[in-house]
Design brief:
This protein is an alpha+beta fold and 137 residues long. The protein has 3 helices and 7 strands, in the order E-E-E-E-H-E-E-E-H-H. The protein has helices at residues 44-56, 109-115, 119-136; strands at 2-15, 18-26, 31-32, 35-37, 61-74, 78-88, 101-108. The mean pLDDT is 93.
């Protein structure tokens, strides 16, 4: 069995007092958080920041206090592990910055939940919201 390791982030900002989330539509058509494979000797954190920049043109601040891992089987007996962090940005407009993704969206929570392709991604977004709620108390 092959193994793949990727890293990414729940990328967010605050606009008019409401959290907004940046989602990408991958070439496959699936919608999720910015993420990608670790390259060379990259750490998960370095890969997450690089992928955010490559896919959305956003320079973000990574919060490693929020760290969630999603594991699943891909075709051809490949086990994929993706580590997600929280990443905050302000004063920037996300845009499709590469040919790695089809589209980039910035959406409020409810619309982001509708747009995400996988239940595991919706669960990660809910875990992030729980994390933010506890942080603000």
């Amino acid at each position: 069995m092959k193994h793949e390791h990727s890293a990414g982030a729940v990328l967010y900002t605050e606009k008019n007092g409401e959290l907004q989330f940046v989602l990408v539509v991958e070439k496959s058509g699936y919608c999720g958080f910015p993420k990608g494979h670790l390259e060379g000797d990259e750490t998960e954190e370095q890969a997450a920041l690089r992928e955010i920049l490559e896919e959305t043109n956003i320079t973000a601040d990574l919060n490693t206090d929020f760290k969630v891992t999603d594991e699943y089987m891909k075709a051809k007996r490949t086990k994929k592990r993706v580590t997600y962090f929280a990443a905050y940005f302000e004063g920037q407009t996300p845009r499709n910055a590469s040919n790695e993704v089809r589209a980039v969206f910035m959406l409020p929570y409810d619309r982001a939940m509708e747009k995400l392709s996988f239940e595991s991604s919706r669960e990660i977004l809910n875990q992030f919201m729980d994390y933010i709620d506890k942080k603000e108390q």
